[in-house]
Amino acid sequence: MEISELLSEESVIANLRVGSKKQALQSLARRAAEDLSMSERTIFDVLLERERLGSTGVGNGIAVPHGKLAGLQQIYGLFAQLHAPIDFEAIDEQPVDLVFLLLAPEGAGADHLKALARISRSLRDRDLCEKLRGASNGEALFSLLTDESALPAA
Question: So what's the pLDDT on residue 41?
C-alpha cells in the first residue's frame, strides 16, 4: 500500500493551528467528517477511544491517530503539519508537529495494518520529516508524502 492510495491533495493540511492534543483530534475529526460525509462526533470518539489505550504519538514529533469506523467504505488518510508543536503524550515525551490520521472500515484487518506500517516506515525517514516541517503549503506536503521514489521501500 502506497501513501498515494491513502491521501489526496485535499486531505493534506499545512500550518494547522491547534494548542492541544484534544484540539488537534477535534480539528482532524471535523475535516475527516466533511470529506467522508460522516459524523464528526463519531470520528472524534473513535480517535479518543484509541488514545485511551495509549498515545499514538510515536516519537520524533510524529503522531498517527487511527481507528476503525462502521460505515466507512475504504481506508482514509489525512495529514497535518502543525503550526507549532503540541504535547501529544508521545512515547518519547517530545512534542508533536506532524500528524497522520488514518481511518479504516471495521473489517479492514490486514489492509489497516499495512497502511499503518507504510505510514510508520515513511515517517521514520528523518530527511523526509525535516522536509515536511519546512514545507510551506499543502501542495508541497502532498508532493513530499507521495513521491514514492524518495520514500523508504516497502
Answer: 97
- Secondary structure class of 104 (helix, strand, coil): strand
Residues 144, 19 contacting (CB under 8 angstroms): no
The two beta strands, 76-86 and 57-59, are unpaired
The residues, ordered by sequence, that sit 6+ positions from 97 with a Cβ below 8 Å of its Cβ are: 61, 81, 82, 84, 85, 86, 133
Residue 150: what pLDDT? 55
Instruction: Please identify which of the residues 3, 16, 38, 66 carries the catalytic annotation.
Output: 66
CATH code for residues 3-146: 3.40.930.10
Phi, psi at 39, each rounded to 5°: -75, 125
Q: Report the chain (154 residues): mean pLDDT per 10 consecutive residues.
A: 90 96 97 95 96 94 95 94 96 96 91 91 94 95 84 48
Give me 79's grid cell: 495529514
d(C-alpha 98, C-alpha 40), whole Å: 21
Regarding pTM above 0.85, the answer is: yes
* Ramachandran bin of 85, using left for φ above 0, alpha for ψ from -120 to 50, beta for the remaining angles: beta
Task: Give the C-alpha separation, 89 to 80, whole Å.
Answer: 17
> For this structure, is 66 an active site residue?
yes
